[in-house]
Design brief:
The protein is of the alpha/beta class and 441 residues long. It folds into three domains: 124 residues, Methylthiotransferase, N-terminal domain (Rossmann fold), CATH 3.40.50.12160; 244 residues, pyruvate-formate lyase- activating enzyme; 56 residues, Beta Barrel (OB fold (Dihydrolipoamide Acetyltransferase, E2P)). It is 34% helix and 22% strand. It is built from 14 helices and 19 strands. Strands 2-1-3-4-5-6 form a six-stranded parallel beta sheet, with helices on both faces. Strands 15-16-17-19-18 form a five-stranded mixed beta barrel. Strands 7-10-11 form a three-stranded parallel beta sheet, sandwiched between helices. Helix 13 runs parallel beside helix 14. The longest helix is centred in the last third of the chain and has 25 residues. The structure holds 5'-deoxyadenosine and iron/sulfur cluster (SF4).
Length: 441
């Protein structure tokens, strides 16, 4: 087989990272080997994200940069994939000259066919149709050598239509994979040395809704807990409205499930939550947090926040800050509201000026940094179970792993420990990581 090089650049969420891995596996079958050097590539794919405007801008500026390579190599094929491709379709060709193919989130499985067609007669290919079956999730992507932790897509799409969000339009309706498919994939990953899986979906709590043979998320987690060689289970993302008491109980009862939940709240104001179409009030969210902490006192809770949603007043924003003070999240991803074409929020009155959004975001992040630092400092002297993932980025002698709470832990140790669970006594808590010393087991 002729040997060719593939360069993929991925923007956005873990779904996209996972999709890119699948693209690489499919293309390997038709002779493309992945490279980190774009100058060497015969095929360049840009897997885009559309969730906020910034992600869109980044994708286009990167596309512009990579297109220069076509001046030197006219045989180079350039493809535009993912959410933004889904949204723009053929418009991409007029915005950036020289793009060869545009394909959406439901067409990944057709990639080899599309590439072959471009190779044959250099015609532009555009595939952004939705399919009613999960094709693209069926491809097994072997994890990179030496990996310890892996993502596993359990569903795609979303039915929630939060007022600010493009995902339901660009990734289609929610569809779950069968438990059999998921278990088979995880068992295969275990053979490759994977010890930890993170189950991936826009709203994993509603897993199984559309399955012919009913299986809910709790049942799925319990099945995965039985897989020998898999030592840890995580999941993301949870929607507060669908977080059941049964799932909360799992944090106390299912031994391999790590004590961490990412539970995006988006705002602390019930009025804004209603406008956002989130399906819960601030007090209902507080109740879920209480239940989680009752069932599992040491659970780590992280969240997402949006500031400057249309109509957000100083009072609404203050309610978000008050909520953060009360809950004291372990960590928060926070964003300025970014208007997305076609979403309901785009029609709402009361735009918040950009400078105001910036100021709100800055103050919110300063508060959260204080909480994160305080929580990490409080862990000094504690002993954490760490699953060793690899060498630390900062030092050759250090290893890096994660505590069950999802915190990064760095410590001195031998590479032979990669893939093992060790006990580490924490000596220092920083803002983004912990440092410690391994205890002889
Ligand atoms: N503007 C700002 N933030 C957004 N998010 C999703 N859509 C938007 C938007 N239009 C954030 C939410 C979500 C996270 C993945 O991205 O907080 O939980
Ligand atoms: Fe977007 Fe809401 Fe679906 Fe999350 S739950 S992907 S925020 S619509």
């Amino acid at each position: 087989m002729e040997h060719r090089y593939l360069y993929i650049e991925t923007f956005g969420c873990q779904m996209n990272v996972h999709d890119s891995e699948q693209m690489a596996v499919l293309l390997k079958d038709i002779g493309y080997q992945q490279t980190n050097d774009s100058a060497k590539a015969d095929l360049i794919l840009i897997n885009t994200c559309s969730i906020r405007e910034k992600a869109e801008q980044k994708a286009f500026s990167e596309l512009g940069r990579l297109m220069k390579l076509k001046e030197k190599n006219s045989d180079l094929i350039v493809g535009f994939a993912g959410c933004l491709a889904q949204h723009l379709g053929r418009k991409v060709y007029s915005r950036v000259k020289g793009v060869d193919l545009v394909f959406g989130t439901h067409n990944i499985h057709r990639l080899p066919e599309m590439i072959k067609a471009v190779q044959k007669d250099r015609k532009k290919i555009t595939q952004i149709g939705f399919s009613s079956r999960i094709h693209s999730l069926g491809v097994f992507a072997p994890p990179p050598q030496g990996s310890v932790s892996s993502f596993v897509s359990i569903m795609q799409g979303c039915d929630n239509y939060c007022a600010y969000c493009v995902v339901p339009y660009l990734r289609g309706p929610e569809m779950s994979r069968t438990p059999e498919d998921i278990i088979t994939e995880i068992k295969k990953l275990a053979v490759y040395g994977i010890k930890e899986v993170t189950l991936l979906g826009q709203n994993v709590n509603s897993y199984g809704k559309n399955l012919q043979h009913k299986c809910d998320f709790v049942a799925l987690i319990k099945m995965i807990n039985e897989i020998e060689d898999i030592e840890r289970i995580r999941f993301t993302t949870s929607h507060p409205k669908d977080l059941s008491d049964e799932l909360i109980e799992c944090f106390a009862r299912v031994s391999k499930l790590c004590e961490h939940i990412h539970l995006p709240v988006q705002s602390g104001s019930s009025r804004i939550l209603k406008l956002m179409n989130r399906g819960y009030s601030a007090s209902e969210y507080f109740q879920k947090i209480d239940r989680l902490r009752k069932a599992c006192p040491k659970i780590s809770i992280t969240s997402d926040m949006i500031v400057g949603f249309p109509g957000e007043t100083e009072k609404d924003y203050q309610e978000t800050i008050d909520m953060m003070e009360k809950i004291r999240f372990d960590s928060v991803f926070s964003f300025k509201y970014s208007e997305r074409r076609g979403t309901a929020a785009g029609e709402l009155p009361g735009r918040v000026p950009e400078a105001e959004k910036t100021q709100r975001l800055k103050a919110l992040q300063a508060l959260q940094d204080r909480h994160t630092q305080e929580k990490n400092t409080a862990l000094e002297g504690s002993v954490q179970e760490v699953l060793v993932e690899g060498r630390s980025r900062n030092s050759e002698q250090d290893l890096m792993g994660r505590a069950r709470s999802w915190r990064i832990v760095n410590f001195k140790g031998d590479a032979g420990l990669i893939g093992r669970k060790v006990s580490v006594e924490i000596s220092r808590g920083y803002l983004h990581s912990l440092r410690g010393k391994m205890i002889k087991n």
